[in-house]
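Holo model, iron/sulfur cluster. Inputs:
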Amino acid sequence: MSKTFLAKKSVYDITKFTTLDFKDHLACIIWFAKCNMRCSYCYNSKIVDGEGTLSNEEVLEFLKSRIGKLDGVVLSGGECTLNPDIVDLCDEIKDLGYEIKIDTNGLKPNVLKELINLSLVDFIALDYKAPSSKFEQITKNNQIENFYQTLDMLIDKKFPFEVRTTVHHELLNEENINEIIFDLNKRKYTGTYYLQNYLHVDDTIEKLSQNSPSINKSLLSDTLPIEFRN
Ligand code: SF4
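Output:
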């Protein structure tokens, strides 16, 4: 039976097709408006501060029209776990036969836990924004303990997920990345740690220099498998 959703229009936009964002899936990306962080390098400032333009019903109509053409849905944003309908929406998406990947900053461990316990999410990409010493400076949010709760929960549950960090040299250096690696080791994360270089756009939340030198790989701890995305 169709759900009655609380939010009127919470989705900013839909990317109708991607082969890059959900491994081994032909997927679309649902971009949720609003976020509980304001990361310096965020290139989605229009989404973070913008209003939704599509209702959950309209998203489901789109997904119904793609049955048989796509097999995955990426919930991104903004921060999709802020959406009051996220559990019901994932339930409906699952009923349509899709696998679901969630991109998250991890500040809503209880929402993610509920989705996992109800088998309403198949993969999570978790942003590890910064070590504790720089978390608030970079994200303008002081709830790092919530992030740690999410990280520990995913590790404890052996849930399929990846940890990734976006790097700009004005914000994070090799020492900071090693602090993150040390923390991941301490928490017994054994998956791959993905590092993605900052990609310049003109309307990031804070003005950052266009050319960020790449991380010096030889200075990084080798206690975790690390992959560079760009
Ligand atoms: S980069 Fe930061 S501010 Fe931008 S959407 Fe992601 S968590 Fe929110």
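The longest helix spans residues 144-157. The pocket of iron/sulfur cluster is lined by residues 35, 37-39, 42, 44, 48, 77-79, 105 (CB under 6 Å).
Archived with the compound record.
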